[in-house]
């Protein structure tokens, strides 16, 4: 049911006019702690509810912005492509790109491949949860109720949520950790794995000092966890560059310790989980963000806390509600392979479990480490053309 999106999801950034709204900070939504696999059994209820939080309110529109700027739109996407490898188009509609051109925000009309509305290859994979004319203001009042989306008219399958902050000319896509599994019968739902590990962005990792990788598997007894260097990937999602760190043998929640090998020092690493890797179209879920590996003999960073949510919408100390059991044996086993760290555990007898973790935001002291990634500009986002 899924369309393989191993094609370009993004192109060159718009040519920004000097008098435009520029490259100021865009406000992403915060996604409150939730189940790493959200089950939507349409035989019971086809509606998926998305909770939305804010790091700040942002509604002061500048003179050269459209009146409906600084608003949120949300999408279900049928593949989880890491943003370090591929991006979704900067523009959702042709009309909005034309408006930006007329306002002088951009100097030229974007190519068709950077406008979602003109991407025929994405029509059966990227589904808006709210229409462009129904975008949500970035205020506590507007986001408090969250968003309900009726999945009745999309194919059954696995999805990830992507948020879109509309603020031309540089609009922003943001990630939500976890998977939305849509089915007409939960017993026949597709195999999936969802990584709920703390965000890797800004995390400094050191060999000999492991970092926890957390997540859930459902509907399958065959899941592998893998890592790859962004340098080895070369901006492309090359399967040959991924190395297996562990195999999950039962559905349910898992937590393992990842200890990078010494030859990974100086490299930014990505983590992914692959459900049913032997099939023609396995489900792949990436951990949010990128590790940076150092070799100075210190300790790896602890998992970061969740970002501050200014509306008081959720309490980060409260565990998310466990969803319904989706089958599988009680308990589970974790098989270490290719240097995986011993001591990993599976701590739930539920598939579709609500794995809890704390993770986003990097202290200021880690910013210097990310200067390293600036050297990778020639490698990042080497997008494939359709």
What is the structure about, briefly put?
This protein is mostly beta strands. 5% of the residues lie in helices and 25% in strands. The protein has 2 domains: 37-188, no CATH class; 192-376, Sandwich (Immunoglobulin-like), CATH 2.60.40.
What does this structure look like?
A hairpin with a 7-residue loop joins β16 and β17. By secondary structure, the chain is mainly beta. 5% of the residues lie in helices and 25% in strands. It folds into two domains: 37-188, no CATH class; 192-376, Immunoglobulins (Immunoglobulin-like), CATH 2.60.40.10. The chain has helices at 94-103, 140-143, 230-233; strands at 37-41, 47-50, 71-77, 126-128, 136-137, 147-150, 157-166, 172-175, 179-183, 192-195, 204-205, 211-218, 223-229, 243-248, 252-258, 268-275, 283-286, 291-293, 334-336. Residues 1-12 and 318-386 have low confidence and may be disordered. Strands 1, 3, 4, 5, 7, 8 and 9 form a seven-stranded mixed sheet that branches. Strands 11, 13, 14, 16, 17, 18 and 19 form a seven-stranded mixed sheet that branches.
């Amino acid at each position: 049911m899924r369309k393989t999106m191993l094609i370009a999801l993004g192109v060159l950034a718009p040519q920004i006019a000097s008098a435009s709204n520029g490259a100021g900070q865009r406000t992403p939504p915060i996604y409150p702690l939730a189940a790493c696999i959200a089950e939507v059994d349409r035989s019971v209820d086809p509606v998926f509810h998305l909770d939305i939080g804010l790091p700040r309110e942002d509604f002061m529109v500048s003179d050269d912005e459209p009146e409906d700027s600084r608003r949120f739109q949300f999408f279900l996407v049928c593949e989880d492509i890491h943003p370090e490898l591929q991006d979704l188009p900067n523009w959702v509609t042709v009309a909005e790109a034309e408006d930006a051109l007329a306002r002088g925000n951009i100097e030229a009309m974007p190519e068709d491949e950077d406008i979602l509305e003109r991407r025929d290859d994405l029509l059966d994979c990227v589904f808006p949860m709210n229409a462009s004319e129904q975008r949500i203001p970035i205020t506590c009042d507007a986001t408090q109720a969250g968003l309900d989306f009726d999945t009745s008219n999309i194919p059954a399958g696995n999805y990830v949520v992507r948020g879109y902050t509309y603020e031309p000319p540089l609009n922003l896509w943001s990630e939500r950790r976890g998977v939305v599994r849509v089915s007409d019968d939960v017993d026949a739902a597709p195999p999936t794995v969802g990584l709920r590990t703390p965000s890797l962005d800004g995390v400094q990792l050191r060999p000999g000092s492991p970092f926890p990788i957390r997540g859930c598997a459902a509907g399958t007894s065959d899941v592998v966890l893998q890592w790859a260097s962004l340098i080895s990937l070369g901006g492309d999602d090359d399967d040959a560059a991924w190395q297996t760190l562990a195999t999950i043998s039962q559905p349910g929640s898992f937590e393992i310790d990842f200890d990078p090998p010494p030859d990974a020092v100086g490299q930014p690493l990505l983590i992914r989980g692959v459900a049913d890797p032997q099939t023609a179209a396995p489900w792949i879920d990436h951990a949010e963000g990128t590790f940076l590996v150092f070799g100075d003999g210190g300790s790896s960073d602890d998992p970061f806390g969740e970002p501050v949510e200014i509306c008081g919408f959720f309490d980060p100390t409260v565990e998310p509600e466990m969803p319904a059991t989706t089958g599988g044996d009680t308990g589970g086993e974790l098989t270490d392979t290719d240097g995986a760290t011993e001591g990993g555990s599976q701590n739930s007898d539920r598939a579709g479990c609500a794995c809890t973790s704390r993770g986003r935001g990097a202290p200021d002291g880690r910013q210097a480490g990310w200067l390293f990634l600036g050297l990778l500009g020639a490698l990042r986002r080497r997008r494939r053309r359709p």
